[in-house]
Structures are given as structure tokens and as C-alpha cells.
Amino acid sequence: MGVTPCLATPELQNIGNKIFKENVSAICDIETVIELDKKETDDNGVSSAVTQRFRGTGYFIEGEENILYTNAHMVRVENDEIVTNDIMSFLMGIPPETIKIKKYTNKIILNGKVYRGEVISFSHDIDAAIVRCIGIKKEDHGGVKIGNSDLVKTGDLIWAIGNSYGEFSQTLSTGIVSQTHRVIGFGYLEDFIQTMAPLYPGNSGSPIFNYKGEVIAMLKGGPSDDLNFVIPINLFKTLKNAKGQKEVPCLGVEAMLKDFPRSSTRLGKEIIVNKEDIEILREITKITEIKNLIALAKGSFERGAIVVYEYNQFNVFQTVSLLGHTTKLKKGDLILKIDNKTVKSGADIRMVLLYSNKKAGDMVTVEYESPENGKMIKKIAKIILMDHPQSN
Question: What average pLDDT does range 346-357 have in this prediction?
């Protein structure tokens, strides 16, 4: 069992009491029923559509009548399909079955009443959705205050209200921020806040409050009931004026999400390259010439994002260099800026493209360097953005 932090001082109890009292009327349960493109027959020979349902949490926003936030995975399934992969089928050698979803029914449950939910915008990359609750009146729900997740620091105290296990509505939990800016491989776009708090299945979509009673994040999930990762609330700003699905475009390549631990060191202005770094760069970029690997090791020391993957379907696309020739980003290139915004990792690139509000087909200016003849050659190019394959 995990260890839950004990926050039992009278002052902290008062904060928790105040947060719960002021915000509980804004916290709702969400139930989504999906109808699959598949029929099943009961013992009486009656055929009916196969359905699945799941439950979580949502919260209404102060000053916005009938508008609530929740996770995208609570109201929409990626690619509008599910893949069956139960253990018995696997053991019997039966391949997984992909089944399309025919219909979604989103229900909002508050104070014992059930309302219909209408999805306004959502992003699986962020795992966030904005939903309109049909039929509810402004006086029938409260609203949470939105804070600034950029101000969150390690050690901050937090509180959450949600539908634990999908059964226990409006449950208050408390804990601390363990770390910020986590990239862990949960999804395409990540800038998680790591928390230590008792948050359970069904808490997905729960608002995370700071001591002022402001929402600074929303629960994504985690590997245990105590160790969880939450989505910074500032990411929701990119969905405010969107309609339908909004995902992050890409450059046709992917860079390392975060740099690997370096064995090389800095001595004054000189970078002393360690052969371990050379071998890692050789493996991830497939560059063979040692002088170019040394140049890249030096050039990427504490700067830039190294391209490590090229999407094959994008290889036919050329980009027009501002230096007058055609080019395209490739493995081993070091991306430094996108539209004059500095990037130091693949995670940075995705964030810059998210906040740019640009979409596939739009163009960005990329400043980068390529290792050639033992030197890092500066280049600038116009790149046409593409949908990343995970968004299709």
C-alpha cells in the first residue's frame, strides 16, 4: 500500500473544509455509454447492440453557464474504436478485434439529476475536453475558479474532489505536489505535475485545487492510487475557442522528448566529449562518421532538440530553405527554434506547436543545425506542419 501524506493540522483542515464547501456544487459525475458496431444475441435469440460504459468526474467553470471540463478519454475514445484483447482470447491465439463505435451518450449527473452532455471541443493529446451540460440552469450548479498552473511548485499542498471508483461522488482528497514538468510516455503531449495523493479510478477528470481554492490541474491518472500525474490547467487555454477535435501538429519528424544523461563535460567554453555520448548518438541518429558525431555531441550539449525519427509517409514532402535550396529535417538534425521560440527537447517542440494554435497544413519557420564535415551547419527552413500519426 502507498503512503498517504497526513495533513491534520487545524489550519490545513480549515483550508480543506473551505475548498470543499465552496466548490462541491461545481463537481459532477460523468457517465459515457458507447454503442459498438457489433451485435450480441441473448439466450432467447434476441439480438442487440453491444454497449460499454465508464464513469468519472467533471467540474463546472465559474462565470460560464453550463460549461464543464473533464478528460477527453471520459467522453470520446481515441480513433472512435476499441480493441478487444481479453486474456482468454490471447491464450487461445485469437487475434484482437477492432470494433468501431457507432454512438456516444454523455451523461452529466449532479444532485441526483441526469443531464445530457454535448462535447464542444476535445484533445486526446492533452486528454482534455470542454462539455456543455444541456438543460441545467446557472443556479443549479456552482463554478470553480481557474488558477495559473505555471505557478505550481514542488511541495505545494493540493486538494481534489472527484468520483472515487465511479461510486463515491464528491469525495475530497488531499496531498502534495511531488514534481513538475514530468514527461513519462503516457501520451503524445506531456507536461505533467506529479502528485502524491489518494486518487482512485473514477477520479479521472477531478479538479486539483491549490490552497487558495483555485483549480491548477486536472487528474490524468497514475501507476498507483497515491502516485498520480495531473494535467496543468493552462493547457485548457488552447481548447477555449476550438470546435470539435484539436490535436497537436508535427514537423514530419520527432525529436528526443528529453535529452539523455551526458557523460561529456564543459571546460570553460570547450565541450570535452565522452565516447559514451558518441555511442548513444550513433545509435539514435544512425550517423556513422565520427567527426559528425563529435560535432553533434558538442552542438547539442545543453541546447536544442535532436531529431531521432522521420515519419516515412512524410518523406515525399520537401521544405523550402530560406537559404534558397530544398531540404527536409532528418535524423541527427538539431532543432533550436520554431517561429523564434527556443526549444531544448521534443517535449518543448510539441508545446510550442500546441500554443501556436497552428494546424496541419500551416507553415512554421525552423532554425536548426546539421552535422556536416565535422561542423554544425546553421540552417533555416519553412516547414509545412502535418498531423502526427497518433492523431489519426
Answer: 93
